[in-house]
Write a structure and sequence with these properties.
CATH superfamily of the largest domain: P-loop containing nucleotide triphosphate hydrolases
Number of strands: 24
Radius of gyration: 29 Å
Number of helices: 17
Shape: elongated
Largest sheet: 8 strands, mixed
Number of domains: 2
């Protein structure tokens, strides 16, 4: 039977109902293609090369490996540098699958709908270039989906918290998953992924270039665990695998154009944070999350169980509990250096009248830990409930001395105006950030909670010249740690532990300054103008004190 002029206005597409009599050679080729996607792609698929135009799709060895892993496994996660043909590889597999696996349903999801649509357009273009005798007739051919005569369908959409919900799919491709906003990626994996993955044959393909410590980072690390893996088969592509990148001088040229840190992310596939983060990129890569040993649905995660005789401090931050910012707390083991994050709480639904009971119970669990409450917003209300209604004794009070700043006083009120916690002033934040940076970068504070590490990767210095969460991100797990950074600089902290890390941090920072590694900042003692540095005679040697409160270490 003669071939039709095509489907609709496109003569390159085979309409529904057109019968083609195969030659013996075509039948042989069809059978080979049906059993081997790599053979089909290299034999019949064409792609548009940026320099050479329309060319046959000849796969590199790493692309063949990507297809084989996807073909042989249900759950796959690939980490790839930029511009290595990762998406084009999966385009080829989708075309093969839709033709040779009738009644299949495939979904292309990306961080933007325009990106998902662009991938579908590439699928459509590749399909058009196939010989008509190997095509299936076209039932639907529009902007967001195509449907073949054999019942196969390919759709595209942005990755959202409701993508693919209620649908049954054979393959779901999550392209550039690291670039999906954190809250959406979390919601997708919590509510949608378990449903689509519950099928017996559904394949889930996750592919991306790293973009900070986010859901993709978490899944990649879990996939590479020798024990308790998340079930995803990991595959990594190195830029050295790409012939064009092996040319002499390519790396140096690229670094000169985009910078070393950007090269580390886009080509070396390092999980660095954004630029100007509080914690250096090198330190961020050392921060490895670990699964909690216990957790509940309210958002309480235990990283290490309480040990009798050890000393703990709980630092709390409170929100309105209306689904936006989180009420949170960090429990730190301060018995010895390095200090350890042993438990966290994170909940954005619990109201400020209920959350004090959580802090109370957690503190009791951890050997009646001292509690420091950040008072901004609803914090004062929480602290009042802890003291007056729950009668918690180990509440750290803070004396406000005006220009003299805030001083932690424990349960002893002393002179001055007492508060039931610390107010996050500019000075407190500056001291806290400086000390927190030093603690983590010198490995004197160990952090393993995923959400905390994730927030560190987007906690950077913005236009306001202060560290804060980037747009659309959170810093609710960071705020308690900033307060902890402020607390360790307080004389009262030495009453909680015999370890005085402040001097250790201070000595290290002075050594860096003497070696010309850091600029000397201008500091204040609260009584002097803020453009002056105060030298304090400690008996053994002079020390430089930071900020308005006369307590701290030299900052940037």
């Amino acid at each position: 039977m003669s071939e039709s002029t095509g489907y609709g206005a496109n003569p390159n597409l085979k309409p529904v109902g057109v019968q083609i009599q195969f030659t013996q050679g075509q039948m042989t080729e069809y059978m080979k293609c049906a059993s081997d996607p790599i053979y089909f792609i290299e034999k019949f698929m064409q792609i548009i090369h940026v320099d050479r135009g329309l060319v046959s799709f000849k796969l590199y060895e790493y692309q063949k490996a990507m297809i084989k892993i996807v073909h042989d496994n249900r759950f796959c996660i690939s980490m790839c540098p930029r511009q290595v043909g990762k998406t084009t590889t999966y385009v080829g597999y989708f075309v093969w699958y839709s033709i040779f696996r009738p009644n299949s349903k495939l979904a292309v999801l990306a961080h933007k709908h325009s990106t998902a649509k662009e991938i579908l357009d590439r699928i459509k273009k590749s399909y058009e270039l196939l010989p008509k005798w190997i095509q299936q007739g076209i039932s639907t051919w529009n902007k967001n989906s195509i449907e073949l005569e054999n019942g196969s369908k390919i759709v595209c959409s942005a990755t959202t918290g409701s993508s693919c919900r209620g649908e049954s799919y054979n393959i779901i491709l999550l392209d550039e998953f690291a670039h999906v906003p954190g809250n959406i990626a979390d919601e997708f994996m919590a509510s949608v992924y378990p449903v689509v993955a519950s099928g017996k044959t559904t394949k889930v393909i996750i592919v991306s270039t790293p973009f900070g410590m986010n859901q993709f980072y978490k899944m990649w690390v879990e996939a590479n665990k020798k024990e308790k893996s998340n079930g995803f088969v990991p595959f990594r592509v190195y830029w050295q695998d790409i012939p064009a990148y092996k040319e002499k001088g390519w790396k140096e040229e690229t670094i000169a154009k985009i910078g070393g840190e950007q090269f580390a992310v886009e080509f070396d596939c390092e999980f660095l944070g954004s630029s100007n983060t509080l914690i250096s990129g090198k330190a961020l890569t050392r921060m490895m999350f670990q699964d909690p040993v216990w957790f509940n649905e309210e958002g309480f995660y235990i990283l290490e169980h309480v040990v009798k005789g050890r000393h703990y401090v709980l630092i709390a931050d409170t929100s309105h509990g209306i689904g936006q910012d989180y009420s949170s707390c960090q429990v730190i083991d301060i018995t010895e250096v390095p200090y350890k994050q042993v438990a966290v709480f994170r909940n954005n639904q619990m109201d400020a009248f209920t959350v004090p009971s959580v802090f109370y119970k957690v503190a009791q669990l951890y050997n009646n830990a001292y509690i420091l409450v950040e008072l901004n917003d609803l914090g004062n209300q929480v602290a009042t409930i802890l003291q007056n209604e729950l009668e918690y004794e180990n509440l750290i009070t803070v004396i406000s001395r005006g220009k003299g700043g805030q001083i932690a006083a424990g349960g002893f009120i002393g002179t001055g105006r007492p508060n039931l916690g610390v107010t996050m002033s500019k000075t407190v934040k500056k001291i806290g950030c400086s000390n927190l940076k030093s603690l983590i970068e010198s490995s004197k504070l160990v952090v393993h909670d995923f959400h905390t590490i994730k927030e560190f990767s987007t906690f950077s210095k913005g236009d306001k010249d202060t560290y804060e969460a980037e747009y659309g991100q959170h810093d609710d797990m960071i705020t308690p740690l900033i307060c902890f950074g402020w607390l360790i600089a307080q004389p009262f902290f030495k009453d909680l532990t015999d370890v005085d890390v402040r001097k250790s941090l201070h000595s290290k920072r002075l050594e860096e300054i003497e070696n010309g590694m850091l600029p000397i900042g201008y500091l204040s003692d609260g009584k002097q103008p803020e453009d002056k540095m105060v030298i304090v005679d400690t008996g053994s040697k002079n020390e430089v004190w930071y900020g308005q409160e006369n307590y701290g270490v030299l900052g940037n």
